[in-house]
């Protein structure tokens, strides 16, 4: 939605020649919008216009540039973005749009190659009235040079990815784009996850398991299908607007506090080890000095030392044993709760079979010396969800010998706590936890901001007009995925 609204506002400026404020007002007035989303659209539109003022000689082009009948099943090829041409038509520029993070993440070579090729050889065509229909392409235009640029709407940056003759674009496509395009057309693999909600096959796809009542709610059959994870419900619990703005994929402040980064680094270390392991982790597999973490987690020596001590205790609770089979590391599962009208996304750290029965393992890191006495199903919503999933046999196999395992790694030891999903009392507790978190979320359609202490660590506070005035956090305490990694135990 943010991108569509941004494109609508830009269309009004570039094709209808409306002043930017007027264009924004008319686009934002068409439907009720969250004020955080409106703030982002205004920022993005102005950022784009200011960064692209450097090319005033280029004229906006409404029609798409489409290459047809390419080869091997690739019948139509085009690139999504904003299109421009010089007054004589000899130069074309395609601007690819990204909400944020342009400096951190490069476009793939295939993306650039396809963008350059379609800008060079694409024939103009309006978007088909029905999306399944072919483009009705017009006559070829004489083009000699193409530019492909990337524009970051958050930071207001423009970077040229390709600038050359059309023959160079053809050579680039041959080198980097052709095979990738054919692979896309012939791809058969299904990877359930965050994209399922947008997929037209979601209601018929075997990868999405039907699970009516998984969230413990009464029926909301008339409600619109939504997607949710335990992290989403946590964000919602913090502040409904914080959850909603992240769901819209508004750019986040990607900074994790040290405890969360230790948790991420420990998880990644174990993930790699388990993916390559042929048996249980040994003490010799654990780091021997503080150089172990991936630099991306930016752990200083003290933090690396804490993580190293946590990992020391993992071999005593490692899930890989002789009877372990069907190991799945960080696999994403999607369940369709047809009562709640929700796609429930779950990504366990590990699932595996022990003598045929499924075991669901979650790992938490904490610097607390000891756990409090609270029940793990009540304390950790991920454990509650895992208990509900295994308790219904949604992964298949026998339920009565399956289990949920919570591994807690501390600098001074490790705990392994088991939950029996076939125990009706555990199931009752699990459903009570899920219901308590999910019901207000399912019934909310406005996602009002709840400013307060949460604003200090809110990843989307930049877009929130209600953000409480607080000092900027010295370092984020627990944000985004990090909040799932380290928890009080
Ligand atoms: S800044 Fe505060 S009020 Fe706004 S979304 Fe974030 S937590 Fe909620
Ligand atoms: Zn292990």
Would you kindly provide a written description of the structure presented here, covering whatever features stand out?
- With 489 residues, this protein is α+β, with helices and mostly antiparallel strands.
- It has 2 domains: 133 residues, no CATH class; 234 residues, no CATH class.
- The protein is built from 13 helices and 17 strands.
- A hairpin with a 4-residue loop joins strand 12 and strand 13.
- Helix 1 packs across helix 2, helix 1 crosses helix 3 and helix 8 crosses helix 9.
- The protein starts with a helix and ends with a helix.
- The C terminus is likely disordered.
- The site of iron/sulfur cluster has 16 residues, from helix 7.
- Pfam families: PDDEXK_1.
- Keywords: ATP-binding, DNA damage, DNA repair, Helicase, Hydrolase, Nucleotide-binding.
- It comes from Micromonospora sonneratiae.
Bound molecules: iron/sulfur cluster, zinc ion
- Whole-number mean pLDDT: 89
For the largest beta-sheet, the strand count, sense and barrel status come to:
5 strands, mixed
Indicate the percent of residues in helices: 25-40%
Strand order, largest beta sheet: 1-4-5-7-8
Round the Cα radius of gyration to an integer and report it. 25 Å
The number of helical elements comes to 13
- List low-pLDDT spans: 473-489
Structural topology:
Layout: H1 2-14, H2 20-28, H3 35-52, E1 59-61, E2 64-71, E3 74-77, E4 82-85, E5 91-98, H4 109-121, E6 123-125, E7 145-152, E8 157-165, H5 166-186, E9 208-210, E10 226-229, H6 230-238, H7 240-247, H8 258-276, H9 301-312, E11 324-329, E12 333-337, E13 342-346, E14 350-354, E15 357-365, H10 376-379, H11 381-391, E16 403-410, E17 413-419, H12 424-443, H13 482-485
Parallel strand pairs: 5-7, 9-12, 10-13, 15-16
Antiparallel strand pairs: 1-4, 2-3, 2-6, 4-5, 7-8, 11-14, 12-13, 14-15, 16-17
The structure holds iron/sulfur cluster and zinc ion (ZN).
The site of zinc ion (ZN) has 6 residues, from α8.
């Amino acid at each position: 939605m943010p991108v569509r609204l941004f494109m609508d506002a830009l269309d009004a400026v570039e094709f209808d020649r409306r002043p930017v404020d007027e264009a924004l007002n008319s686009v934002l007035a068409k439907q009720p919008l969250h004020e955080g989303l409106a703030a982002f659209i205004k920022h993005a539109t102005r950022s784009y216009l200011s960064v692209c003022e450097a090319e005033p000689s280029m004229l906006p082009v409404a029609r798409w540039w489409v290459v047809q009948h390419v080869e091997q099943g690739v019948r139509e090829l085009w690139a999504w973005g904003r299109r421009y041409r010089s007054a004589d038509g000899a130069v074309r520029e395609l601007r690819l749009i990204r909400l944020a993070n342009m400096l951190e993440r490069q476009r793939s070579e295939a993306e650039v190659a396809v963008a350059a090729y379609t800008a060079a050889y694409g024939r103009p065509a309006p978007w088909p009235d029905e999306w399944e229909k072919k483009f009705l392409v017009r006559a070829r235009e004489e083009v000699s040079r193409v530019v492909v640029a990337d524009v970051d709407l958050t930071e207001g940056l423009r970077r040229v990815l390709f600038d050359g003759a059309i023959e160079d674009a053809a050579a680039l496509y041959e080198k980097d784009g052709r095979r990738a395009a054919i692979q896309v057309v012939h791809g058969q693999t299904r990877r359930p996850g965050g994209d399922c909600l947008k997929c037209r096959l979601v209601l018929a796809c075997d990868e999405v398991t039907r699970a009516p009542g998984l969230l413990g709610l009464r029926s909301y059959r008339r409600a619109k299908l939504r997607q949710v994870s335990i992290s989403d419900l946590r964000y919602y619990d913090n502040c409904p607007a914080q959850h909603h703005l992240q769901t819209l994929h508004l750019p986040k402040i990607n900074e994790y506090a040290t405890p969360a980064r230790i948790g991420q680094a420990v998880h990644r270390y174990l993930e790699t080890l388990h993916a390559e392991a042929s048996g249980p982790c040994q003490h010799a597999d654990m780091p021997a000095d503080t150089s172990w973490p991936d630099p991306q987690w930016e752990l200083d020596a003290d933090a690396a030392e804490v993580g190293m001590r946590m990992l020391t205790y993992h071999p005593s609770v490692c899930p890989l044993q002789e009877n372990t089979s069907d190991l799945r590391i960080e696999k994403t599962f999607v369940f369709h709760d047809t009562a709640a009208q929700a796609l429930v996304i779950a990504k366990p750290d590990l699932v595996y079979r022990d003598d045929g029965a499924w075991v669901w393992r979650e790992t938490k890191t904490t610097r607390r010396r000891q756990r409090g006495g609270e029940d793990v199903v009540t304390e950790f919503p991920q454990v509650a969800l895992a208990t509900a999933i295994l308790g219904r046999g949604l992964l298949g196999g026998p339920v009565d010998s399956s289990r949920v395992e919570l591994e807690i790694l501390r600098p001074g030891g490790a705990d392994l706590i088991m939950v029996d999903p076939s125990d009706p009392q555990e199931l009752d507790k699990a459903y009570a936890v899920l219901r308590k978190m999910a019901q207000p979320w399912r019934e909310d359609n406005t996602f009002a901001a709840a400013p307060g202490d949460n604003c200090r660590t809110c990843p989307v506070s930049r877009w929130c007009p209600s953000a409480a005035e607080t000092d900027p956090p010295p370092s984020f305490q627990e944000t985004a995925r990090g909040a799932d990694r380290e928890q009080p135990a």
